């Protein structure tokens, strides 16, 4: 990168390189509007496609919704250009936990603090169907208050080498933290594999070295498969007992996170009730949606005067980027019953238009919830009444995504209704139909810089 000021998407000033992997580089950056420090992970789209990671991306998008937790690095937004995907993330000022351990092993009290935070973060993400699969000290960061920040949840497969079989192969990474069933390459439970990795991390924090280590890689694998390790003399009895249950080579009998939270070592000097309440409050807050818009409320049966619209997180937003359209990744069966469009009209205008549409097509509004319409036809078709959901998501202020999905009835009748009635009726509020590749953005003409790494003024931001 040269010494000139480099600005991404007219929004972020790019600074020093923080780290890199096989498919991505991470830079320090600054938000030009708010002056907030962020980290930007730049993923090479061509490399990701070449090794067949599209299925992994699709899978992560489908499960990674509203993941926000005090001990997980937060993703603020996702942008894309023709050649790169940009993840704008929380900047962890304290650096890697690995650097702290490299200076010397931690006392059990300090290790317990970080282990508590790690378990709470992992438990929260598992509850959302998200598994890390590559937990290691390098992925554990610290904020300015020395609290843990787990990075790369849902993204680890994008920066680690994978082969064409789609399985995670760790020989090119850090195999010492990997569970025995992962080494076997026969498929594995992501949650149980993460728990094993948490155990290895705990051992490293207190011992200052790895439980499984050998200059011969195959011998190391054998030690991992047999859970062949020895605890140093300074480990407490309670810690040894906990590690024996975590580093169980049989995933079926390996201790679970709820059981970990009940162990004497975990409970020592631990305000678990307060931590769990904190954990649950985060889930509750995120599930409810954050933004509020005023509805029309001008007619009988109209929407409430105010309603909370769900927010889309970074993984959802990837699919909105004109530079990275994922619509072709989904199965034909899905594409036949789902359509999406974006709109820059205010939420009340979108709501009013949908209500007009329902009245014009004589659709019954069966249920209206936060941003969700459930619409049903009045005529019986070949396969019953056509019913569909129309849900509004707030992507950013003054930028919305509307998803319409057939929930019952004949697909051909639904597609005909969509083509002849719904699309024409909504043209005044639609900014772009997702998947319409012929659609040309009015104000965006992507310019890709010839340099591989850093575009200077790309304009394909989705926000």
Automatic annotation (TrEMBL):
It comes from the Eukaryota. Its EC number is 2.7.11.1. Residues 275-305, 443-463 are annotated as: Disordered. Residues 284-297 have a biased composition (Low complexity). The chain crosses the membrane at residues 195-212. ATP binds at residue 41. It catalyses: L-threonyl-[protein] + ATP = O-phospho-L-threonyl-[protein] + ADP + H(+); L-seryl-[protein] + ATP = O-phospho-L-seryl-[protein] + ADP + H(+). One of its GO terms (biological process) is signal transduction. Residues 307-331 form the NAF domain. Its cofactor is Mn(2+). Keywords: ATP-binding, Kinase, Manganese, Membrane, Nucleotide-binding, Serine/threonine-protein kinase, Transferase, Transmembrane, Transmembrane helix. Residues 443-456 have a biased composition (Basic and acidic residues). It holds the Pfam family Pkinase. Residues 12-266 form the Protein kinase domain. InterPro entries: Kinase-like_dom_sf (IPR011009), NAF/FISL_domain (IPR018451), NAF_dom (IPR004041), Prot_kinase_dom (IPR000719), Protein_kinase_ATP_BS (IPR017441), Ser/Thr_kinase_AS (IPR008271). GO terms for molecular function: ATP binding; protein serine/threonine kinase activity. Signal peptide: none annotated. PANTHER family: CALCIUM/CALMODULIN-DEPENDENT PROTEIN KINASE KINASE-RELATED, CBL-INTERACTING PROTEIN KINASE 11. Belongs to the protein kinase superfamily. CAMK Ser/Thr protein kinase family. SNF1 subfamily. This is non-specific serine/threonine protein kinase. It comes from Rhynchospora tenuis. The lineage of its organism: Eukaryota, Viridiplantae, Streptophyta, Embryophyta, Tracheophyta.
